[in-house]
Amino acid sequence: MKLDKRYIFHGDSACRPEHPYADSPTEAEPYIVDEELKQAVNLAIQLRRPLLLEGEAGCGKTRLASAIAYELGLPFYRWDVRSTSKAQEGLYQYDALCRLHDVQAKNAGSTVKRDPSNPTDYCEMGALGKAFQLTEYRSVVLIDEIDKADLDFPNDLLTVLDRKSEFLILETNETIKPTPGNEPIIIITSNKEKGGLPAPFLRRCIYHFLKFPDRPEQLSRIVDAHYQATTLAQEETPPKTDLVKAAATRFLELRREGGLYKKPSTSEFLDWIEALQHFGDKPYAVSTLKKVSPLPYLELLIKRRDDWEKMASAA
Amino acid sequence: MNDLDLRIDFTDVTTRLFRRLRKGFKLGMGEYLVALDVIRWETGPKTLADLKLTLRLLWCHSLTEQEQLEDDWDAIATLTAAKPKEKPSSDSASDASAAPEKPEAEPPTAPEVQQQLPQPPQPEPEVSSDFMRTPYLGDEWDDGSALQTYFPVSRRSLSYFWRYLRRPVADGSADVFDLSATVQQVSRQGFFLAPVYTRRNVNHARLVLLIDQDGSMAPFHRFTRDLVETVWEESSLQPDNTSVYYFYNVPTSHVYIDSHCTSPVTLAAVLASCDSETSVLIVSDAGAARGYRRMERVRLTTEFLVKLKQRTNLIGWLNPMPEDRWAGTSAGMIRHLVRMEPMNDDGMSNTIDTLLRGQPLSS
């Protein structure tokens, strides 16, 4: 397999091409990527295999996909999997009932928006279907929370996710398959909520476990990146470095030593920083934050009653 | 030149690691070839650490697998660390590594013969040449799972197998849209009135689960708990058609409706609720866990099975002990009375089959 030099992910939104393709995300997604994750993304792009991301809730699994689409300027199609989702929905859906209705309506003399004699008018493409139809460039498809669906769901997707994938639209007898070289970049996220995924499915994926950033500097970098993106848009004052540093230290301490059942994640940390910075009349005092107990705005970090009680008894 | 040497080394390390991990990680040739592809890329791994990262991303699919790769990597890295010193004057790629080493371990095969033959006798020549030199590692390492936990059947496969326990009867609510029937009706009537709906399929299978609890079954509580949870939460069985009872060693006059064996019901009442279409699944080690053969236990079990067989023929028995431990125990005798299966994927599958189609006539 040859290396495709058009698409190399650097983890830097400044690498976005000047003229991104249609359907590419318009808002920059601040995302800090370490070497391993960068390597994983590039392998997935080059080998045309899906990238399976696992990790704690709120550590940025879903956001990575739009960060990739933004940086490479590629169209981004998102498919949120629900408990009732079927593999078919990601490919296409056909509204036969509407067509039947239109035939009758037309015969009765009323005007219809679509032409019932043309079967393709009633076909709505799903995320993968849209991605397969692109002939000039690739796209990024996010299959979010694949573990939420039925047990058979990953198995049904196997053939579509394979490199020689194609599917048939029964109603119109069209075969949809990606143009060689322009297969979609597929990112799959999972929380392992309902047991593991089947082995044949895993075998086809590149697997990466997103670890929680366990050093204060990493958290500070995430906060910086986040505010760089939002301050541009909303003219907010970013929090001071020493506040972020103190907050990161206290936050990691809580995660490490709090003995919590549900540990707060990156997204909750960002909310907390936001509250420390903007909720009061002026930003929270750094000297107080370093030693105050219990922590301020604990509502943002602790989401379970037993964890609350634990914190209360510790204080 | 130096760069080329490194590449050869990488292929070798990749091959060794693949042979070690293949079985346990369920990797196919595709995964191996992809790894070789990536090594050849310009942007491919430059250092051994890079290589490890690449292979980890390609081959591991869980944190446990990542840890196992780390362990195996260390073993392989120490073996290959001494390598560059041993082949200082290698000029061409594959022959160079094979030529100086072959004669040491395998005197009859001269290097010239090797080079003349276009197809080497071994399927993987570069690997076998390396095995001559290094301490014997075992041809393909067992995945090491024997040293890890005994995990006969995963929760996923349990939920999966339960789905096959079904007797669909179309007597549910009429809300399934039938396109072809609708089109037919329209063409018959000449105009469209309403879509045609058919009745939804409902699972009419009935299941009684009898679980041996405590004593020798204590180590397997995790699996029996999974079994019960998946029946309740993830099977397609109707909750009204499913009942779970617990017993200690043998179901005698009473069984219990809770796993702590505190609320008894009479066995007669349980049997009375079974008809010929009720599947009964017994989960017990039948004495195999401790390796005893007790005639008393066999006698009581036989009595119970005779009573049960008067009611239904759809009887399955899952034994959480591996099959090779049944011989010489009570389980070895009881298995002649009822089809007993080990609690692994194949056994589960056969059991579901028995629960639907019944015991073979011979037993």
Q: What do these coordinates show?
A:
- The complex is a heterodimer of chains A (315) and B (363).
- Chain A has 315 residues and is an alpha/beta fold.
- In chain A, the strands form 3 sheets. In chain A, strands 2-5-8-1-9 form a 5-stranded parallel β-sheet. A two-stranded antiparallel ribbon of chain A has the order 3-4. Chain A has a two-stranded antiparallel sheet with strand order 6-7.
- In chain A, helix 8 packs across helix 9.
- Chain B is of the alpha/beta class.
- Chain B has 16 helices and 11 strands.
- Chain B has a 5-stranded parallel β-sheet, with helices on one face.
- In chain B, helix 10 crosses helix 12 and helix 10 runs parallel beside helix 16.
- The chains are: A alpha/beta (315), B alpha/beta (363).
- At the A-B interface, helix 1, helix 4, helix 7 and strand 9 of A face helix 2, helix 3, helix 10 and helix 11 of B.
Features:
heterodimer; A: 315 residues; alpha/beta; five-stranded parallel sheet; two-stranded antiparallel ribbon; 12 helices; 41% helix; B: 363 residues; two-stranded antiparallel sheet; 16 helices; flat; disordered N terminus
